[in-house]
Design a protein that fits this description.
heterodimer; A: mainly beta; six-stranded mixed sheet; B: mainly beta; seven-stranded mixed sheet; 0% helix; 54% strand
Chain lengths: 113, 112
């Protein structure tokens, strides 16, 4: 119930292509869904986040799509660039109680030039 | 700029040693967290703290303890290090009611 399942584990995309990473959850009490980006040797950094009252949120080339009925959300990176090569984590948390983040397994994204 | 500092980037310890991982934040955040990161498993919560001297277990607390004597410092303690505790350890902090964490750069611990 507390898990967030992320796929794929690794992804290779050509420069200029669209990168898509998917996550699924079971706990309907989750109400905050962030994505974190991690470069080698660094800690994860908040990239973009969404709440379940909207189906899509866009910030520059990064878009979160949210499907509440399917309990799924995804990150789309448009016009992918080599500088986007990193590990991406989806996460979820509840408003009640601890508000701690539960993370997915991570996706290592490589953008080939 | 907000900052979370972890005292060591790399650490090598022997099995059975008591290990201290230190984390300091300069943002006056109430909430602090310790996660471990392992390939294919993502980030898993070990312990967290909402205030000085307060702590709560996360999902994988076995073999670990924590200390928070001052608001800015949150220490993770491995009571008797074992090889299965070889991992990347990440500290994070956040203000109350805000769920966007600021992470440190991590400590890569190897237990031999």
């Amino acid at each position: 119930q507390q898990q967030v399942k992320q796929s794929p584990q690794s992804l290779i995309v050509q420069k200029g292509g669209i990168s898509i990473i998917n996550c699924a959850y079971e706990n309907t009490a989750f109400d905050y869904f962030p994505w974190y980006q991690q470069f080698p040797g660094k800690g994860p950094a908040l990239l973009i986040a969404i709440r379940p009252d909207v189906s899509e949120k866009k910030e520059g080339r990064f878009t979160i799509s949210f499907n509440k009925s399917a309990k799924q959300f995804s990150l789309h990176i448009m016009d992918s660039q080599p500088g986007d090569s990193a590990t991406y984590f989806c996460a979820a948390s509840m408003k009640q109680g601890a508000q701690k983040l539960v993370f997915g397994q991570g996706t290592r994204l490589t953008i080939n030039p | 700029d907000v900052k979370v500092t972890q005292s060591s980037r790399y650490l090598v310890k022997r099995t059975g040693e008591k290990v201290f991982l230190e984390c300091v934040q300069d943002m006056d955040h109430e909430n602090m967290f310790w996660y471990r990161q392992d390939p294919g498993l993502g980030l898993r919560l070990i312990y967290f703290s909402y205030d000085v001297k307060m702590k709560e277990k996360g999902d994988i607390p076995e073999g670990y303890s924590v200390s928070r004597e001052k608001k800015e410092r949150f220490s993770l303690i491995l009571e008797s290090a074992s090889t299965n505790q070889t991992s990347m350890y990440l500290c994070a902090s956040s203000p109350p009611g805000y769920r966007g964490y600021t992470f440190g750069s991590g400590t890569r611990l190897t237990v031999v």
